[in-house]
Amino acid sequence: MPGQKDHANLFDDARSRLEEVFEAIHVHGDARERLKQPNLAMQVSVPVRMDDGSLRVFPGWRVQYNNTLGPAKGGIRFHPDVSQEEVTTLSFWMAVKCAVVDLPYGGGKGGVKVDPKRLSKLELERLSRGYVRAIADIMGPDRDIPAPDVNTNPMVMGWMADEFDHLARGKVPAAITGKPPALGGSLGRVAATGRGALHVLDLWASREGRKPEETTLAIQGFGNAAYHFARLAHERGYRIVAVSDSQGAIYSRDGLAPDPIMEQKTQHQRLHEMVYCDDSVCIAENVEKLERDELLSLEVDILVLAALENQVHEHNVDQVQAGAVLEIANGPVTSYADEQLEARRVPVLPDVLANTGGVIVSYYEWVQNRSGERWAEEEVNARLAERLEYQSRLVLERAEREEISYRKAAYRQGIERIADAIQLRGNCQDSE
Ligand SMILES: NC(=O)C1=CN([C@@H]2O[C@H](COP(=O)(O)OP(=O)(O)OC[C@H]3O[C@@H](n4cnc5c(N)ncnc54)[C@H](OP(=O)(O)O)[C@@H]3O)[C@@H](O)[C@H]2O)C=CC1
Ligand SMILES: O=C(O)CCC(=O)C(=O)O
């Protein structure tokens, strides 16, 4: 059964979305060729001295995908299933998404094949520093700027930034984003992916005449992106009826409160092991435990996918009963499943637009680091809202005008910008 572990053909599947764009808009032949493969894929070995004195070597990758618009930009993932194929695909999506929201960046992504939940804090720090030493030659504020992704966070970015400074013999804060604020991280970055996704959902919902308090959400995943989205959506009045993590899901038709869930998840690690309601805590009355993937087939207004790629695929797309899908994860719907949803007229707010809040605020962090400024959180949030509302409106209006899905509209917007830049750089031979 296809799933997150199954990365075979992930890149071909992702890249197939380019074909539709090439048929629909004029893209110079040379630009088409340039867009089909990464600029650089680096494989590294990261040796780590474990606490028991043994040495383990973890494979890792950093991939840069088309740097025409600017330096490569994108997160670093620590996960046992990471592969070069996955990292390449994620870097492709980064290139598209940065262009969709008009950032001066190409795509980048990194990963280490490791289960970080099995490492001590010191082992995790050695791994993070070792990975930076391995890829330092291709990093830098004008070359490639890493950031957090699955299982990496501000603490990991802080270690990585410190290691890069040691190697550079100076302070280079703009070489990594998503750092803790004390090390030059931008205020607002931690919540930015979830906040951005909520802006996109709100904009779409208001155009559809849909009110938050009449809208139910089921959210797959309860990590950084999902939690902050859930918290802000709950504040806004949306009713969250289900959430899941890698081990299970919980459901309450009365609605779930994200903050107490997060407090308990921090303590118990698994949603299925929490206390749902007693004298001291209540995340909701009437909580039911579900199998993890049962969440995907709940009858809700919006299915929010905020975990990993390939979650909705040919074997389960028929079971999706949600009225619409919001993609906060990268690539959570395969291209086959996407076509099925489109045929059933289930709107999908696509990853390359809906999850751009994180990289947008990473860009603001880079700008602040380069100019020596520190912006207030309100300013960061206001700039994020303004950019996302403007770029999202362009995508939604294009979809309506050209009678295409939101994903196709977003891809056309992004690829058009990259292709124009490739041609303006003057290194294309005009063969058409
Ligand atoms: N962080 C960011 O700024 C950005 C993240 N993204 C994307 O958002 C997604 C989530 O990233 P992020 O929140 O940072 O990662 P985290 O590591 O913080 O959280 C991932 C969450 O997904 C859960 N999960 C993993 N597998 C499954 C599964 N099969 N079913 C249900 N839940 C599952 C994990 O469960 P458990 O808690 O049990 O481990 C965890 O709660 C990724 O696709 C990432 O690329 C996109 C843009 C920016
Ligand atoms: O903040 C960034 O630079 C990138 C975040 C990321 O990895 C993503 O958008 O998938």
TrEMBL record:
Q: Which reaction equations make up its catalytic activity?
A: L-glutamate + NADP(+) + H2O = 2-oxoglutarate + NH4(+) + NADPH + H(+)
CDD domains annotated for this entry? NAD_bind_1_Glu_DH (cd01076)
The record ties this protein, via InterPro entries, to: Aminoacid_DH-like_N_sf (IPR046346), Glu/Leu/Phe/Val/Trp_DH (IPR006095), Glu/Leu/Phe/Val/Trp_DH_C (IPR006096), Glu/Leu/Phe/Val/Trp_DH_dimer (IPR006097), Glu/Leu/Phe/Val_DH_AS (IPR033524), Glu_DH (IPR014362), NAD(P)-bd_dom_sf (IPR036291), NAD_bind_Glu_DH (IPR033922)
Gene3D superfamilies according to UniProt: 1.10.8.1210, Leucine Dehydrogenase, chain A, domain 1 (3.40.50.10860), NAD(P)-binding Rossmann-like Domain (3.40.50.720)
Residue span of the signal peptide, if any?
Answer: none
Q: Which residues form the Glutamate/phenylalanine/leucine/valine/L-tryptophan dehydrogenase C-terminal domain?
A: 186-426
Q: Which UniProt keywords apply?
A: Oxidoreductase
**Could you tell me which SMART domains the record lists for this protein?**
ELFV_dehydrog (SM00839)
Q: Which PANTHER family match?
A: GLUTAMATE DEHYDROGENASE, GLUTAMATE DEHYDROGENASE 1, MITOCHONDRIAL
Membership in a protein family: Belongs to the Glu/Leu/Phe/Val dehydrogenases family.
Function of the protein: Catalyzes the reversible oxidative deamination of glutamate to alpha-ketoglutarate and ammonia.
The protein, known as: Glutamate dehydrogenase
